[in-house]
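Form 7-S
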Amino acid sequence: MNIGDFAHHLSRRVEGLTGAVTDPFRPTVIRLGVTGLARAGKTVFITSLVANLTDRGRMSQLRAVGEGRIEAAYLQPQPDDTLPRFDYEAHRAALLGDRPHWPESTRAISELRLSLRVRPTGLLSGFQGTRTVHLDIVDYPGEWLLDLALLDKSYAEWSRDTIERLAGRPVAADALEALKGEDATAKLDETRAQVLTRAFTGYLEAARAEGYSDLTPGRFLLPGDLAGSPVLTFAPLPPQDDAPRKSLWREFERRFEAYKARVVKPFFRDHFARIDRQVVLVDALGAIHKGPAAVEDLRRTMADILGAFRPGRNAFLSQILMGKRVEKILFAATKADHLHHTQHPSLAALMQALTREAADRARFAGAETQSMAIAALRATTEETREHHGQSLDCVRGTLLETGKSAAFYPGDLPQDPQKLLGPAQEGAEGWLDGDYGIMSFAPANLSLRPGDGPPHIRLDRAAQFLIGDKL
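Output:
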């Protein structure tokens, strides 16, 4: 254990002792982590959640709202001065302005504090005044959780596993040729190192566009202020048993270890270890649209992501968590508004089956889990149309590319999720019963009544599961 980890270990013990003494006299604080892979809708989820907790007319399934016990909700300065603030005002303006559009996606970690003034319930409610509950929302990319697995691997192991994975993907052909053709025993040439890194990063970007999810290291796609630094300038190379000092192999090996020590570990130590409740957002419909390979890749990736919630598997994580567990985890299939409500049970069942392995791991660590189909911001309406004598349940929305209104029928999801997961695990090239479509809809132009937040699907039920017991 290095000095930084020891200091964190000691501070967690002191924090636990002082918290036990002062908790009865302090406001309740809930740290809610919001994560998911690219295009899962993290920014929209947080923006709509805050807007709907501020104006609670559409949050009847959150019990404290239904009972009229939340008197006020307001933003306050966040407790961590070293983190960027989640730009709620700009994202809300993008979604609900005169010309609504989707906000920029998550690029790094950020935080926002929403404080709720709540009346107590129960026998003592008549003798107690209102209390304050702080909801600290931490937004971070799901790709960063995948990096936890790197801590248990050497550079040689990671290189071998990554190159084997690339070999089965046509989208990786150019990068694989460059990596395999390199003389890793030659003396380090920084220009060449950068060329190889760009080739590998190009593969990661192309693979993400193709629907693949298992893309590590996570910061290569979301570098932030580390862009161009040596800690992000390496790539997998065919293993070398006796590469000399100062060779390309040895330098990439050193940078891989620096990435683990200076990028991966600080994130888990300083941020992940402090989360109480967690939302994992999943674009399951996008994966289905891409095909069986993308669905199977997503299933495996979700199991890897949720490995972070089973700390006993990793010695480093066990040390920094010190017995602390995330108490609740919600697996949410987003974009439920792309389907008619009659198909939402099938989407929720698929979400549960898709994350079965991941959920089992989380339950083993003592977390309560739930799967749900949601839309944090509803962008469509529903209608039924006749087509060749058949009634089709459709959704209508404004197409993102053209700005025109269109009705869309995506196809029927099977009630049995194994009809999708089975072919995916067997390596099928396409769906036996045809393709499942998906459209890109723009946010609807809304006119909200006073007291109403933006329209959603089951966001209030999600909030009840995540924080209802603390209210």
